[in-house]
Specification:
This protein is α+β, with helices and mostly antiparallel strands. The protein has one domain: Nucleoside Triphosphate Pyrophosphohydrolase. 22% of the residues lie in helices and 33% in strands. The chain has 4 helices and 12 strands. Strands 2, 3, 4, 5, 6, 7, 8 and 9 form an 8-stranded mixed sheet that branches. Strand 11 and strand 12 form a beta hairpin.
Length: 215
């Protein structure tokens, strides 16, 4: 197991993050982490990649948190894993942002009217054939959630500072389909965030650090 090298602190003021996000997509991805482990199995420009979108809901507490879900154990894929609300971009979706908001409403009952969209991050490509657009949104506290019983076992918050801190980004090496791959794990208490979800968080943290370092 390797840990990510320390990076400059990104700052956790939600107003500053909201201002920074529109500039982050242009910085591109900075690390990989996948589920199965990281590294695209096809060229980034491959038309075979299926578009998808997830929401990174930052809850605007005095100490900001990140809202995450745990999938039910009966799903055919990714059962029991920690994930962002999200899914495939449908033909009826006007954009990846629209897809992320729709999926969030469907999965956890959090409506678009409660979400202040800051903007999309760089696309994240997975071994399983998806091109995921992470969308950052700020949510005011006091919401009520209605998780989809067939998809979501739990919805919970983790401190944003904890998951963005590179000291908590554990880089592991594993085997998948006979090849060696790297992937990230982020622990918080008994929670184990890994794969695509951890990889997107690591990319977000690195992009914030790069932007902050350029000021």
């Amino acid at each position: 197991m390797l840990r990510a090298a320390p990076l400059p602190p990104a700052g956790l003021d939600v107003a500053l993050i909201r201002q920074a996000v529109p500039h982050l997509r242009a910085l591109g991805p900075h690390e990989a982490g996948d589920d199965p482990p990281s590294g695209p199995s096809q060229p980034p420009e491959s038309p075979a990649l299926t578009p998808a979108a997830v929401l990174l809901p930052i809850v605007d507490h005095r100490e900001p948190t990140l809202l995450l879900t745990r999938r039910v154990d009966t799903l055919r894929k990714h059962a029991g894993q920690i994930a962002f609300p999200g899914g495939r971009v449908d033909h009826d979706d006007e954009s990846a942002i629209a897809a992320a908001l729709r999926e969030t409403r469907e999965e956890i009952g959090l409506g678009a009217e409660r979400i202040d969209v800051a903007g999309p991050l760089a696309d994240y490509r997975t071994n399983s054939g998806y091109r995921i657009t992470p969308v950052v949104g700020v949510v005011e506290p006091g919401f009520t959630l209605t998780p989809h019983a067939g998809e979501v076992a739990d919805v919970f918050e983790v401190p944003l500072g904890h998951v963005l801190d590179p000291r908590n980004h554990e880089r592991h090496i594993g085997q998948w389909q006979g090849r060696e791959h790297a992937f990230y794990v982020i622990h918080h208490g008994e929670r184990r965030i890994w794969g695509v979800t951890a990889g997107i968080i690591v990319n977000f943290a690195r992009a914030l650090a790069l932007l902050g370092g350029g000021r």
